[in-house]
Design goal:
Strand content: under 5%
Structural class: mainly alpha
Largest sheet: 3 strands, antiparallel
Shape: elongated
Number of strands: 7
Order of helices and strands: HHHHHHHHHHHHHHHHHHHEEHEHEHEHEE
Helix content: 40-55%
Distance between the termini: 75 Å
Strand order of the largest sheet: 5-7-6
């Protein structure tokens, strides 16, 4: 595919300048993602515990086992964690090693966006896109963490790259490679990878130079390949006899297929999943490896009184008013070593303003007004041009961004703030393309172009000022600096008559002015001394009300109750499991601190029914389990009643008294083998 409007080869001096500027942008991206990387802890402990467990055996590695006993898997596919295992194998299970793949992926993504935008729109547009992605706050926060979304975006950008090659070169093999890569992305984050598909399908169908029926055949064949790659691991797991693999965490029926279309599918669209109580008869225990893990709060509560932050509430209950800066929802409790900054599961109310108001505006909304209006300017600039590479790029990036924006705006399903990273790359590309379109207009009609630039950039900066107001002390000078840069840029462009270079500098200053506020927010994200490591979000550290410090033992940068841990280790006699808990957040600190198997009854959110009371009795009789942490087990009445009838409650040093037969809101310990 040729494009007669593609920019002419740049002179040597310009190439040197571009290389220097690109290097500076990549260094900025690296600083924002690598500065003090991993110093706040291991990140999301659910995922970190899984990596530690996966490193203990090939069985655990392949099936993504949450705990070393191989009883249950995490509720995600394996590829992202395989990459983290590779890093942790050489560097150890620590915060830096676990976040390293994501941070590297983030820097590489900045370079890929530069390359993708540079070819059709020129090096200056490529630099603008790279800078915009480098300072996208949600990209910075997510890529400083051990969540796997940064790796997913990197793979999808590679898919976009090769898909564009299929249009540029008229070689259908590139399309198949692109769909292969989307399938690889599926094995990082399941259906989330498919959010790029509207852009890829629109790109090929409308821009590829083949007859329409050939394009349909090509897309059908490529889609078949996509499905084969996407579901390959899931099919292997589901065809493995349940007794020979972990229970599929987060699923209703112990299959990956149900996990894909249930908790990680329909629940992401319309809700449900972990928020619903799963009905029906208790499942029978799976023999051999599987029994299972899950997720709520870590066992912090039986530290000595007066020396601890208010503990997280039992799963499903709200914390006391004022206990935390922003009360967390179930499953997102704030606790020492994770965050002092509140509820990152708060993603706002579905509706038209969702991406333009906190909390999501702080993640992705900073340049959204500029881009949404800019799309029309790009369309106008390309309207009379023959179909070429620029049109293909517009189809890709708009087809990627707009469906995602609609989904995140109106979705009522399970969502976290850091999912907005999916919008970062197309937003950055369209930002740069808007700058290119304004330059095209400037060359033809100078004053209308400057007026439009002043309106778009000035309105966006004003929107950013309102967004930052009262949330950081730097809001005032950042807004003033942005308006000064914009004014200087407009004056330079207005003063330029035949001096193209001066006009280019002026437009560049105006674009940088729009990126100043998100750049500040990204810097505050990097410098945040108490980031939420479980569910990352962007912005400065929030005031925590002077919560007292907690004296705890650290193991692999994980906070764990020292009194309870010492008691368990002193009484551990080689049972298969050190202790059993309701869910994974309770279990993860013990796994990370000891590397020993920890059984959980309820899967990721405590809502799975992996083993019933009869299965628990079999485990105890077989000598696999002695101690059960009682916190939250009132949710599992069959298990709780069996424990009441068969296992005495023991008093661990420093723990609040727990009476036999009472709901163990404090983490009472049942001893089933003493």
């Amino acid at each position: 595919m040729t494009d007669e409007t593609s920019p002419a080869p740049a002179p040597r001096r310009q190439k040197i300048i571009v290389v220097i500027l690109l290097a500076l942008i990549l260094l900025l991206a690296a600083f924002l993602r690598f500065y003090h990387l991993g110093e706040s802890g291991v990140g999301n402990q659910y995922y970190a515990a899984a990596v530690k467990s996966m490193l203990q055996s090939w069985h655990n590695f392949f099936f993504v086992a949450f705990e070393p006993g191989g009883s249950v898997s995490v509720d995600k596919p394996p590829l992202g964690f395989w990459v983290q295992c590779l890093s942790a194998y050489f560097l150890g299970v620590n915060g830096f090693a676990l976040a390293l793949p994501n941070a590297l992926a983030g820097v590489f993504s900045v370079f890929i966006v530069y390359k993708l935008v540079r070819r059709p729109f020129g090096p200056w547009a490529g630099l603008a896109a790279a800078l915009a992605l480098a300072v996208t706050p949600v990209a910075v926060s997510a890529e400083r963490n051990n969540t796997i979304d940064g790796l997913l975006v990197f793979v999808l950008l590679l898919a976009a790259w090769v898909a564009l090659q299929s249009v540029y070169t008229r070689k259908v093999g590139w399309l198949f490679l692109g769909m292969f890569l989307v399938g690889v992305g599926f094995n990082i984050k399941m259906l989330q990878a498919y959010l790029i598909l509207p852009g890829l399908y629109a790109l090929y169908f409308f821009a590829a130079r083949f007859k329409w029926w050939k394009k349909i055949l090509h897309l059908a064949a490529a889609t078949l390949l996509l499905l084969v790659i996407s579901f390959s691991w899931a099919v292997i797991v589901d065809l493995t006899p349940p007794e020979n693999r972990p229970y599929v965490g987060g699923s209703e029926n112990n299959t990956v297929m149900e996990l894909i279309f249930g908790h990680n599918g329909i629940s992401r669209l319309i809700g449900g999943g972990l928020n619903r109580v799963r009905a029906g008869a208790p499942r029978q225990p799976v023999q051999n490896p599987p029994y299972g893990p899950g997720n709520v709060q870590p066992p912090m509560q039986n530290l000595p009184p007066g020396n601890v932050t208010p503990p997280p509430p039992p799963y499903g209950q709200q914390p006391p008013v004022g206990a935390y800066p922003r009360p967390p929802l179930p499953g997102s409790q704030v606790y020492p070593g994770q965050s002092g900054s509140g509820n990152v599961m708060d993603v706002g109310t579905p509706g038209s303003l969702r991406l333009f108001t906190f909390p999501l505006v702080g993640e992705i909304g900073w340049i959204l007004p500029f881009v949404l209006m800019g799309i029309f300017i790009v369309i106008a600039a390309l309207w009379k041009q023959p179909l070429g590479e620029k049109h293909a790029a517009l189809l890709l990036w708009a087809g990627w961004l707009l469906p995602e924006a609609l989904y995140f705006t109106y979705s009522t399903g399970i969502m976290h703030a850091y999912y907005m990273i999916m919008m970062g790359a197309p937003l950055a590309a369209l930002f740069a393309m808007t700058g290119w379109a304004l330059w095209q207009l400037f060359q033809k009609r100078k004053w209308p172009a400057l007026g439009l630039l002043a309106l778009l950039a000035g309105g966006t900066i004003l929107f950013q000022a309102v967004t930052m107001n009262g949330r950081t002390s730097a809001a005032g000078w950042t807004t003033a600096g942005a308006f000064l840069l914009l004014g200087a840029g407009l004056l330079l462009a207005a003063a330029a008559r035949t001096r193209v270079r001066l006009a280019t500098v002026g437009l560049s200053l105006a674009l940088i002015a729009v990126l100043l506020a998100p750049g500040l927010w990204s810097l505050l994200t990097t410098l945040n001394p108490a980031p939420n490591m479980a569910l990352p979000y962007s912005g400065p550290a929030q005031e925590t009300g002077g919560r007292p410090s907690v004296q705890v033992r650290r193991g692999n940068d994980v906070f764990v109750n020292p009194l309870l841990l010492d008691f368990l280790l002193e009484n551990y006699r080689g049972e298969k499991y050190l202790v059993a808990t309701l869910n994974a957040n309770q279990a993860a600190p013990f796994i990370l601190a000891t590397g020993l198997p920890v059984f959980t009854f309820g899967g990721f959110g405590g809502m799975d029914i992996i083993v019933d009371a009869d299965g628990l009795a079999e485990m105890v009789a077989a000598g696999e389990l002695r101690f059960v942490l009682g916190q939250g087990l009132e949710q599992r009445q069959d298990v709780f009643l069996w424990l009441q009838q068969n296992c005495p409650v023991v008093q661990t040093p420093g723990a609040a008294p727990v009476q036999q037969g009472q709901p163990p809101n404090q983490p009472g310990l049942f001893d089933c083998g003493g």
